[in-house]
Amino acid sequence: MPEPGCVVVVGGTSGLGLEVARHYAGQGRPVVLSGRDQGRADAAAAEVGGDARGIALDLAEPGRLADRLADVGDVRHLVLAAIERDENRVQAFDTEGATRLAVLKLVGYAEVVHVLQPRMDPEGAVVLFGGRAKDRPYPGSTMVSTVNGGVTGLVHSLAVELAPIRCNAIHPGIVGDSPYWSAKGEPALEPVRQRTPSRRLVTMEDIVGAVVFLLENRSVNGENLHVDGGWLLL
Ligand SMILES: NC(=O)c1ccc[n+]([C@@H]2O[C@H](COP(=O)([O-])OP(=O)(O)OC[C@H]3O[C@@H](n4cnc5c(N)ncnc54)[C@H](OP(=O)(O)O)[C@@H]3O)[C@@H](O)[C@H]2O)c1
Question: Is the pTM of this model over 0.90?
């Protein structure tokens, strides 16, 4: 018997979210994926194929999310992957970008959970995307490191508040074939590879596998899973 409800991927038009959406669409599951722009979301949904559709929402406008999500029906799994990176350093701090990212990733993620929770299957699960920048910053990651640290606490609270729905976070290392990092090229990536005990960069395929595990393993709850090839050990 197929599982009831759709898989919602917020931030599903690009990168890791797009690959998660592609996985579930390929499994024949109904998928709702979002970006900020309806046309881009529609194009991503058409690209992943199957029973996928796109919606537009902006997590930095949390007061409008209930409206934006109004026509999403029953939900089995919810993945929150969106980010709008502000390359911010404290010596030249941009408070506008910093505020936008903090609202987007912490208030926006929590508000989507708040809105969709009554429509979620009790056997479903939520995965939030954080990231290893919380522990190992890179130049310009001041706010990315901050919000990804915040995801750790949010997961702990949601796992308790959403029960029996499970909630976990994934904290990837640098994903070498993701659009953001692959655009930086080998000079940025090779030092990371050398400092990673697995001697390889994390791939988008590795991340999809870990997200599926977090969503579908019925005993994994309240976890902050690091998927980084052991990067922090060296
Ligand atoms: N890539 C990595 O190596 C890496 C490493 C560690 C952690 N992470 C985490 O993994 C997640 C995905 O990263 P990624 O590199 O795959 O991202 P990405 O390719 O930059 O995609 C970001 C997604 O977020 C959406 N988005 C941007 N601003 C938004 C807003 N204000 N409201 C709603 N949606 C918005 C984008 O949609 P539109 O552009 O269509 O609006 C897009 O779908 C992020 O949370 C990131 O922190 C990534």
Answer: yes
